[in-house]
Amino acid sequence: MNKQGCRRDIVLPSIAFSTRRIVPFVVLAILGGIGGDAMAQGFHSYPAGVAPSCDHSACARSSDVFWPSSRGGTGGWGGQPVGNRWGSLNHTEAAIGSDTLPSNWFHAPYSTFDSAIESSVLPSAACHPQADCQLPEVATDSACDSAPRSGKLLGGMEFMWMRAHFDQNVAMIIDPPVGNTLVPFDYNYELSPRVWLGWQSLRGGGFRATYFRFDEQADSEAVTAVTGSTPVFVYVYGAGGNLSRNAQAQVGETLTSNHRLKLQALDLEATQRFGWNSLQGTLAGGVRIASIQQYMRGDVRDAGGVLQEAVSNDLNVEGAGPTISLQLRRGLGTSRLGVYGGLRGSLLMSETTQKIYEMKNVFTTELEDAAVHREVITALEMSMGLQWNQARGDHSHWFARGGYEGQAWFDAGGPVDSSSTISLDAITFALGMQF
Questions:
Q1: Least CB-packed of 3, 65, 122, 289 within 10 Å?
Q2: Pfam families from the entry (predicted)?
Q3: Where are the domains of the chain?
Q4: What residues in the chain have per-residue pLDDT under 50?
Q5: What was the pLDDT predicted at 147?
Q6: CATH no., domain 151-434
Q7: 244 within 8 A of 235, measured Cβ to Cβ
């Protein structure tokens, strides 16, 4: 009798080497060799010939295998679980018992890649201290000797080499006598972080918090106006094009433009894991809280460096709304390497605040326009790549993955207006753990 109040009886192995009983074992041995460590993830260890006499679901993982024995068993059990840590041929044959195998006999994780996230111990009322079970005096290490875990913590960090794009990407325009030349802002790939932390129950449900940040500044763009290429200018538009301000450089003057983008997003989600054949997935839904800040400024200076004109666009977007995401993973053969893909969509009920500043003739004239409007901003994300999984013990694993990600934030504004689309693309590398 242990503190859980479970009883184990000694079950003598049955040695019956008929052809019909050898064939199922050979099948088990072959598939067990293919499954390897993956099957080991899904089974508990019991001493040879020892089985709990309480309900068979009491001390088993969801991936254990049970079926009734034609010869019956002790304590009304009627059979034993089969696992590659049970030991000898005789024990396995005794566990098989019947002449035929049921159609659902193989419940091990799908592959070595997927087994890293499969092993889960289900709680059972039969191991409760009040259960009517008894144990013989047998030293063993089984599921009945320790309370089942309620869930797992998970977390990780992703390093993203990301750059920004805009559909209205204007640093300045050069206006020669025939045609115009647009000079865009040039963003380089810069490192941006993403972190997540969550918890997952044994039934696959859980929650997760994810934080992402992009905070970079484009290279400065500067052009000096010369005869034949005058003026060099930049216009800023607001309130749906109803407001406009500008800065213009004449011959001998230089226009310098700068732009900075800071984007942050926090996702708070409920999650649910699922599996279908060799495909593993996580569906999540919750709320996204986002902030987008942009600042663009164009300065015109004469040959002596004195500021003559200036224009700026100060744009801030604050929003929150529903978000939904889907992550899929699949192993490649029996290796630990697999592929992954992810999709996310968000609708942000946002308030956009825009301030446009204009200065002319060495501060002789200064004007500031302000506009506030509410809108729904749509954000879409897609990612894909390769992932490597490595199990650590029975209850934890870590992974490393690398891939590519693209994001689009529609109507979020750009350097010279409040309605452009912001696009982000990134090369990503992530490390994560579940324990």
A1: 3
A2: Legionella_OMP (PF05150)
A3: 1-148, 151-434
A4: 1-145
A5: 53
A6: 2.40.128
A7: yes
